[in-house]
Amino acid sequence: MRAAERHRNDFARRDPETLARVFRHFGEVECPQVGGRLYGALCAEIADDAELLALAARTSPTQPPPNMLFASAHYLLLADGAHPLAEWYPALASEAPRSPESAFTPFRAFCLEHAEVITPLLETRLTQTNVIQRCSALLPGFAHVSRQNGATPLTLVEIGPSAGLNLQWDRFRYEYDPGGVAWGDPDSPVTVPCELRGTTLPALPELPARIPVAGRSGIDLNPVDVSDPDAVRWLRALIWPEHLERHARLEAAIGIARRDPPTLHRGSAADLLPELLRSAPADTALCVYGTHTLYQFPPDALRATLKAMQAESRERPVDFLTMEGTGDRCSELRRVAYRDGERQTTTLANASPHGRWLEWLT
Ligand SMILES: C[S@@+](CC[C@H](N)C(=O)[O-])C[C@H]1O[C@@H](n2cnc3c(N)ncnc32)[C@H](O)[C@@H]1O
């Protein structure tokens, strides 16, 4: 069996042998890819520790045990930054963080000491993040859709917005390099950097000074409320300790959202999208979008969501911008243009799953 296939089959299993394999894979393959030295060092030893594996086995069958165990410990530390284990976490340490290689003993003691609090977190929470840097791909996508619609103000509907932070994409500052292209509010507290890759010219579509937006809302099965400190702490806990820029971006974007909360509807896009599309003002251009979301849809819900856009396009044009993983550490940004019940798909860009780089294709 190929490694990737075995990894998929291991997802919901909680026996010690499988869990040990899952932690080793996470430490050896996933951590180096994203620069996670602390979790990488911990995984090797967790895989040999019966008590920690038994604790991780309490993770809900739909969620990945390594992410959940690490996020649960991080979540508790975020509430108690004075705990000695915090000294191994770059975002929490009072001085230079201690070496990941010496983290296992205090990490193990912390988890076992707090097992009663960690267990319900493992059983009930979700690995639900909100990755702001993905806006580096959305911005040129919106510019493209806006131009295709003659700069008519857009009615935006995000499917799977999580906390809705990316609904406020036009309140951020963007910096694309090489090329030194900047866009947005120079005084924004949120900066979205992005490396441009590839040889196709232009490296980006022309970005108009303003992309007019008439309205915006999101539909999520489980919207994260940024006014709830506990929900925000969990969102922060899911960001890896070394990713200091992501921590800072999240904090700043939450600050914007708290002052002007995004409109989020709770439910499945399959159920709620038709009505949101129907009720959009007639003098606006409809643009539905979603990033790293469709992969979570059961087939029926996915069919119904796409059908809602196709059906609405018999009345008026609908554009759909979708960024999803392709399976090999790359994501694709596509525009699906629904017109008169027909659809035409264009791949606009390749991008890193977290939006760190972008290769514009058209
Ligand atoms: C991996 S998160 C991505 C969040 C955000 N789009 C981002 O890129 O940071 C996927 C989101 O899709 C939501 N979701 C999953 N299935 C959904 C459905 N059928 N309808 C609406 N939202 C859904 C989840 O609750 C979650 O917030």
Please count the beta strands (DSSP E, at least 2 residues each). 11
**How would the global form be characterised?**
globular
Overall pLDDT score: 94
Cα Rg = 21 Å
Count the domains. 2
- In order across it, which strands form the biggest sheet? 3-2-4-11-10-9-8-7-1-5-6
Number of helices: 12
Order of SSEs = HHHHHHHHEEEEEHHEHEHEEEE
For the sheet with most strands, the description reads:
11 strands, mixed
CATH topology title of the largest domain = Rossmann fold
CATH architectural type of the largest domain: 3-Layer(aba) Sandwich
How much of the sequence is in beta strands? 15-25%
CATH class of the largest domain: Alpha Beta
Catalogue the unreliable spans. none
Quote the distance from N terminus to C terminus. 38 Å
Small ligands present: S-adenosylmethionine
What does it look like?
There is one protein chain. This protein starts with a helix and ends with a strand. It is of the alpha/beta class and 362 residues long. It contains twelve helices and eleven strands. Helix 5 (65-79) crosses helix 9 (229-237). The chain is 39% helix and 19% strand. The protein has helices at 3-10, 16-34, 37-46, 50-56, 65-79, 104-113, 115-124, 135-148, 229-237, 244-259, 269-278, 299-312; strands at 154-159, 173-177, 181-184, 191-196, 213-220, 264-266, 285-291, 318-325, 331-339, 342-351, 357-360. The model has no long low-confidence stretch (mean pLDDT 94). It folds into two domains: 3-120, no CATH class; 132-360, Rossmann fold. The chain has an eleven-stranded mixed β-sheet, with helices on both faces. It binds S-adenosylmethionine. The site of S-adenosylmethionine (SAM) has 22 residues, from strand 5 and helix 11.
